[in-house]
Amino acid sequence: MKKLGLLLLSMLAITLMLGGKALAGVVVGPNDSVYFVTYYSNANTSGVPDATLRIVNDGDLTSTGTLWAAIYVFDDSQEMRSCCACIIGSDGLLSESVNKELTANEFTGRGEMTRGVIKVVSSQTAVPTFPVVFPGLRAWATHVQATTTTFPSGPGAAANAVEKGPWFVTEDPLADSNLGTTELSNLGTLCSYGLTIGSGYGLCPCTEGDYDF
Length: 213
What we know:
alpha+beta; about 35% strand; Hypothetical Protein Tm1070, Chain: A; five-stranded antiparallel beta sheet; 11 strands; 3 helices
């Protein structure tokens, strides 16, 4: 019994030295984020390439290998316009089109979204209104960049800026972010309100299989 106790204490000490923490009986390291953010720009614009959100399941921590990417899409007025939870099996790939999926079906009926923020929670549930965080997802996004931007003078100049091509497409990992209980609750609540008020609109579709854009 003493040997077992010493072994457990040694394992705990190693975990603490590595900066890990216990989560549902699993040792989670400092790089096991559950919350990611990025932006989208120049979406739904004629002559401009589509952008893509790509998410993979690293297959490391879940007993079943299955996770859901709870996705929340905001416009540039900081208003959530769509949300969904897409299943990703162990070592699986999810590819979501910004134009055709993430911004195509939104709750408000205000029209096309051109720029804003995308937030992703690594979740154990298929319900975007009640995500249960669990690490295991990694995400990247392409961004469409204009080569020139013209800012007209006068009131509202920034809002009326005209971006012109040719266009560059870059890809970057989503930023690991801090997820507090308030933010997690707000994401689920806003998603729930939006889907309810939208009467079926606002639930972004999930790509079946590994179809890429």
